[in-house]
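2.7 Reproducibility. Because tokenized structures are sensitive to small changes in the input, we list the exact sequence used for Trichome birefringence-like N-terminal domain-containing protein, including any N-terminal residues retained from the expression construct. No trimming or masking was applied before prediction.
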Amino acid sequence: MIKLLLLGLILFLVTIIPLYIFNSSSPWPSFRTLKTINFGKTTCTIFQGRWIWYPNSCIKFGRPDTDFLKWRWKPDQCELPLFDANQFLELVRGKSMAFVGDSLARNQMQSLLCLLATVVYPLDVSYTSDSRLKRWFYVNYNFTLASFWSPHLVKAIDTDPNGPTYNRLMNLYLDEANDVWAAQIEAFDYVIISAGRWFYGPQVFFENGKVVGCHLCLKNNIKNLTMLYGYRRVFRTAFKILTGLENFNGVTFLRTLSPAHFENGEWNRGGNCIRTRPVSRGEMKLEGDDLELYLTQVEELRRAEREGKKRGLKFRLLDINEAMVVRPDGHPNHYGHWPHENVTISDCVHWCLPGPIDTWNDFLLQMLKMERY
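Resulting structure tokens (single pass, no recycling of outputs):
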């Protein structure tokens, strides 16, 4: 049953996303912004390190191999404790946590659900039948966990909802909130926000209700702008929403971009991710548009930090960059679909459960501990 559940989670991730989010073959950069964590009398930058062989784990779902499970993240300066579900639940007792973003945000939330399931199962208290908007309640801990589907973070309108998923034109209102999450987020104590691969698709940008330009829209009467133009502004708007909510007193974590690892071709031209172990430092790096996206979101977080201080709000960087860039082995590849579906495009964007993505929640746990001091 657990095996089927985990496979189902991966399958669900890949059934509701447009294919153009796969449109990048370059993984992540050497640039990093580090988070120092206190371990007793010492400090440690947990985001800088390497993967070490750790064979004491194995849960199998669709992939025939399991070696990708047998690695753990080792920061250069310390040991990163294994995830302690009891400790996590005690830290969030009486609190609430929301993941805001696309299917990779949900991927992290599902990882967390699985990790916490070693202690207790939550109640599904979702207020809608829409599977993209989930809410779970841990009764014994009075802890609410929620996921808000908002891949562009701001108000977005699909101009052709029934059209092909790989080239849908989206209207993005760069200065307007997406009320799917913005109308409810004020009550949450912790917000993990992220966005990325949806911005590779065609978009028309609106500001103050008027068209200001577009990316890949192929309209001669609209000014061509880069996707970075929209990307910067949606993060600025999202952070502005959080700082502007009168009763919001939560901690916001920016989870940095998650790397795709297509090799042997582009995502739609036979690209796959068939490696079975991590690569060494420097063997893969971020470049081009992916690097610019990463730098842009970090810059906007720093801007939000400055604004947030005026209200006593905290903005934190959950930087998965260095850990995940070297894990091309951690994706479902073509095992992210049921065999009878006959899907030929590999999934080298999402992450296997369990797998390297669980480390994101190792990081999150340590950062939550720091917020208590």
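DSSP finds eight helices and 15 strands in the chain.
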